[in-house]
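Supplementary Text 2. Reproducibility record for the structural model of the 187-residue chain.

All settings were left at their defaults, and a single model was retained for analysis rather than an ensemble. We include the record here because the model underlies the residue-level annotations in Supplementary Table 4.
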Amino acid sequence: MAHFARIKKQPNPFTSELEWTVQEVIVASNDIQTANGPLGDNDMHEDGETYVKNMFKHMYSENENVWKQTSYNNNFRNLFAGKTFVYLETADRFIEPQPHASWHLSNEDFTWKAPVAYPSIVEYDNPLAGQDILNDAGEVEGTQPDKAPYYIRWDEDQQKWYAQASHLNLNKDTHVWNVDTTSWDEV
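Retained model, structure tokens:
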């Protein structure tokens, strides 16, 4: 099946610059005919986008009835579009929405980058390693692994990475990323 994203010019919530924002994604038949044969054999053919536009012309005004094909398998246009994703017209790609005002878009891989590089340490020695993991019925389902993941998050106000040691289940930050030592400090 072919997938199409309806895009509309809307202001970026951080910069107020207008950008093509995905409003919805629909599925259409691969059998839609294009000048080069069925759409299933001709990804991104403008005839597919025209077909979908004509299908919805009674529902949307001209400036809200703009469609771009998107690939469910990420075979073209970078990512499979989802609601609120952004279509970069100059690069002919879909990208995720900007997560924070301080983040910038990489021109190399079209992903958002924080002003501080993502921590290089994402797991730690699990103090519960080797202990039984029990299900709700009290039955053993396995053993605790040697390593446990940090739950990492970006704090926009502090411009820092924070993490929670996953084995603690405290629902609060336990560590802050130290850019000078490239290690986690306890908070």
